[in-house]
Amino acid sequence: MSALVDGIVLTAEGGASVNQLIQNLTFFVLAAFLGYSVITKIPANLHTPLMSGANAITGITLVGAVVVAGEGQTQVATVLGFVAVVMATINVVGGYLVTHRMLKDFSRGGGGNR
Amino acid sequence: MTLPFGSLPDPALSLAYLIAAIMFIQGLRDMTHPRTAVRGNLLSAGGMLLAVAVTLLSFNIITPAVLVGGLVVGGLIGGVMAVRVQMTQMPQLVGVFNGFGGGASAVVAGAELIGGSFSVDVGLAAIFSGIVGTVTFFGSMVAAGKLHGVISSSAIRYKGEHIVKILLLVASLGAGAYMVAQPGMVPFLEAAWVPPYWIMVLIAAALGILLVIPIGGADMPVVIALLNAYSGLAASGTGFVLGNSALIIAGTLVGAAGMILTVIMCESMNRSLTNVLFGGWGEDPSEGEDMEDIYEGQIQETSPVEVDILLDTADRVVIVPGYGMAVAQAQHAVAELAQLLKEDGVDVEFGIHPVAGRMPGHMNVLLAEADVPYDMMKELEEINPTFKQTDVVIVTGANDVVNPKANEDEGSPISGMPVLNVSDAQSVIVNKRSLSPGFSGIPNPLFAKDNTSMLFGDGKEMMQELVNEYKESR
Question: Model-level pTM?
């Protein structure tokens, strides 16, 4: 998929970029298998907190948003970065808080046999 | 402000991301039991804090004010929403948060393309996370709107809708392909904000809305779970754009979680994902006219007083909640009844169908909030064999998930769907407002069975009356 299309700018260190891609794919595949095996063990009782907790983890995109917003490359990029930081932070803070609220109910109601 | 931005070396950053990933994974593993789940969530949150903190330290932050402003604004909005929400509104809140995560991924990918050339694989990853993230954002907002009652929760369908959706997908892919293939057409514009990317996003927005609009309210557990997977995958795609391992690992974990939940939800209805997404159940909720005729003369009505007499002699009672319990906010009355019975030595359990409610595990969260002990909530496979030894089953606000047609009638739309076989019990009390059909739109022969009595009325009122009667006769 290198220079097939006119106008594609290849990075100077093409080999390094391919290595990076393969490394990223490795992360992706291993994480997918790991996620599958971890999550199939979670009981239906906890599916809602699982979902909102996993949801909060999606907020990891905040890390990318922080970089884009902070680099200040161009004004447009900074504005977009700001929007992304706000959205991702809502996801992270709200997600973890609401999961905590639900899980507290569960541990209170059923931690042991009352 | 002299913060130590940019002072952290690269290997330290990678190492910190690895630690954060471990904390996410262990956090999810701790979710297997309610005793450890609180700790798991805190661990996961700690991982997130670590990942964000090291990112701040590692990159050269030129505009800290913008960054801090965004963090504060987002944190406040998210915090207030999480604290204010009622447990019954949880499905839509989870949907909204999910949408913001997906939207953020799409915006980050777009912003990252600005100002420079990018390789093909980065361009393709950006197309992926741009489309998936945007569909997640707009799809989640529509789903939340349906759950909140702002948008009609019935399935809105029109002629040729599938063609429209396919055309939109093709168009947004086309815009993305143009972006990757010709990054030099209008060099000045391209470098400033990459217009094809945002055209792609715009089309994907329409696609996201149109994908969820035709799906009925009771299929939302599947939609919410699927969108959850999408937002994870979008984050993962953005990780490919940025070359960031933390995003790839965490995003993929969530993608897997959402996919598994989606599959579980579909299997619990014996329907394929395609059928849920494109089949359009729940189109016509007003088709209850001739239902009265079907049940004519076969329905026995009961009252709280009569149910109380049954409960007084019962050794084992199973309560089957459905979405109607959430709508009526009856969970506290139901929990109180269960608690009273338990105090009197009655064996009480809750039989919870996987798709009862509007998101996976919806009933469990509501009951947990009402202080129902965790070990009283049983899954379908666990509870079904016990109905034969059960004296009284109380069904409140559930319909399709207790419909025997799923087992008996080959041609019915719910045939093959695993259901709770409540009619195996001595007597079944069904609390409902009327005989109207459930989401599947078909009548429920359970209501006409000899051992079934209908307790007509609002869930909360009826359960409260039942609690009062029971208290008096103790």
Answer: 0.87
pLDDT tens per residue, range A32-82: 999 999 999 898 889 999 999 999 999 999 999 998 888 777 888 889 999
Provide the residue ranges of all domains of chain A, joining segments of one domain with +: 1-41, 46-114
- ipTM for the predicted complex: 0.87
Which residue in the set B5, B70, B235 is minimally distant from A60, CB to CB?
B235
Mean pLDDT, rounded, of chain B: 88
Asked if B219 and B279 touch (Cβ cutoff 8 Å), the reply is: no
Q: Does B400 qualify as catalytic in the annotation? A: yes
Question: Long-range contact list for B311-316, CB < 8 A, 24+ apart?
Answer: B311/B341, B311/B346, B311/B392, B311/B466, B311/B470, B312/B470, B312/B473, B313/B391, B314/B341, B314/B346, B314/B391, B314/B392, B315/B346, B315/B347, B315/B391, B316/B346, B316/B347, B316/B348, B316/B349, B316/B386, B316/B389, B316/B390, B316/B391, B316/B392
- The CATH homologous superfamily to which domain B291-472 belongs is TPP-binding domain (3.40.50.1220)
Mapped onto helix, strand or coil, the DSSP state of residue B349 is strand
Structure tokens given for B383: 């509870």
Give B332-385 pLDDT, tens digit per residue. 999 999 999 999 999 999 999 988 888 888 899 999 989 999 889 999 999 999
Residue in B30, B219, B308, B400 annotated catalytic: B400
Query: Which helix (H) or strand (E) element contains residue B65?
Result: helix B64-84
A3 CB near a chain B CB, below 8 Å? no
Domain ranges of chain B: 1-84, 90-278, 291-472
B190-227 tens-digit pLDDT: 667 788 899 999 999 999 999 999 888 888 888 999 99
Beta carbons of B247 and A54 less than 8 Å apart: no
Burial (CB count within 10 angstroms: exposed 0-12, middle 13-18, buried 19+), residue B78 = buried
Q: Judge whether residue B321 has pLDDT over 90.
A: yes
The pLDDT, as a whole number, for residue B89 is 87
Interface contact flag, B257 A96, Cβ < 8 Å: no
- Tokens describing residue B102: 């997906």
Which has the higher per-residue pLDDT, B233 or B181? B233
Interface of A with B in 28-47 (CB under 8 A): 28, 31-32, 34-36, 38-47
Contact present, B32 and B48 (Cβ < 8 Å): no
CA gap B273, A68 in Å, rounded: 36
